[in-house]
Amino acid sequence: MSKIIPIPLNFDLAVSPERKVTRLVCAFAVPGKDLCLIDTGTAANEVDLVRALAGMGRDISEIKLVIHTHAHPDHIGCSARLAELASPTFAAHPAAARWIENPDLHYRERAVHNFHEMVGGAVTVNRLLRDGQIVDLGGLKLRVIYTPGHSKGSVSLFCLEEGTLIAGDAIPHLLGIPLYVDVDQSRASLETLLRLGGVRRLYTSLSPDPIEGDEIQTTLQEGLAYLDRMAALVRETRARMGETALSDLTAEVLRSLGFDPPPVMPMTLQTVAAHL
Questions:
Q1: In the chain, what is the straight-line distance between the N-terminal and C-terminal CA atoms, in Å?
Q2: How large is the average pLDDT for residues 106-121?
Q3: What average pLDDT does the structure give for the chain?
Q4: pLDDT of 17 strictly over 90
Q5: Distance between CA atoms of residues 94 and 258, nearest Å
Q6: Which of 21, 68, 168, 191 has its CA 20 to 30 A from that of 8?
Q7: pLDDT for res 2
Q8: Number of other residues whose CB lies within 10 A of the CB of residue 259
Q9: pLDDT band at 18 (very low <50, low <70, confident <90, very high)
Q10: Where does the pLDDT of residue 80 fall: very low under 50, low under 70, confident under 90, or very high at 90 and above?
């Protein structure tokens, strides 16, 4: 039984100026000597976090450390409010910190239609996370694993005592939509996780249910196969369409994946561009 507790949080993501879809992201409570929260959901998830922690017999003011797996809005959106309620230390990879500390820069470089609804404000990243670093929570230790690809500053976290791996959004096919900025980095990150020994339980940000046993390796291998399929699809679509605008190419790729209407937005444009 894991001491790490997933907290499922629903949020609305605008895939166009006119259309929103409901998505799920998981934060994780890690109750060592000090209470740690991995990711914070969106600005609208404050009540959900308070309720979930109360169900564990904890108060949100007890949070001493917040670790961000990466800097996307559904993972950092409630951090500014937590800074007011608990004054925790905020930790992230240096490549993620620049967006966490500057939401305007974040929006300029990776616009999301309802970004300012999702992100409540900036926080200062007090602790920079590096690959291989150990975060000691008192009773539980988390090893930082640098797993870029989905974003430049993505990390996974491996609980040494439990064999529990929290992979954030590093496994591309589970996201339901292709979202990554670097194909080679994403592939290398999956291979890093495949080589990691002692993993008994795998969590992603997309479900409160763990992946266990042989399914861990299978899931990571499926992530690699997904990248191969995407590469082939983009290559074949581009050959068929000839020289065309990135937005048109992205729309056609997404239609081929079954998305109707295709969610052509900066994050999917980046994914297709990563294959060119």
A1: 44
A2: 92
A3: 95
A4: no
A5: 36
A6: 191
A7: 78
A8: 17
A9: confident
A10: very high
* DSSP category for residue 130: -
DSSP state of 80: H
Q: Say if residues 192 and 147 touch (Cβ distance below 8 Å).
A: yes
> Residue 274 — very low, low, confident or very high, per pLDDT cuts 50/70/90?
very high
More confident residue, 139 or 183: 183
* 36 Cβ contact list (under 8 Å, min separation 6): 29, 30, 63, 64, 65, 66, 67, 135, 137, 142
For the stretch 253-264, pLDDT in tens is 999 999 999 999
Closest CA to 69 of 95, 87, 51, 48: 95
| Edge-first strand listing for the sheet containing 89-92 | 5-14, 20-31, 35-38, 63-67, 89-92, 127-128
Asked if residues 246 and 273 have their Cβ atoms less than 8 Å apart, the reply is: yes
In sign, the C-alpha dihedral spanning 255, 259, 263, 269 is negative
**Helix (DSSP H) and strand (DSSP E) numbers for the chain:** 10, 12
Residue type, 180: Y
What is the amino acid identity at position 150? Answer: H
Backbone angles phi, psi at 246, to 5 degrees: -60, -35
**Residue 236 structure tokens:** 């074949």
Strands 155-159 and 164-166, by their bridges, are antiparallel
DSSP 210: P
Cβ atoms of 138 and 33 within 8 Å: the answer is yes
Tokens of residue 102, six digits = 């500057």
15 pLDDT above the threshold of 90: no
> Do strands 164-166 and 201-203 pair parallel, antiparallel, or not at all (unpaired)?
parallel
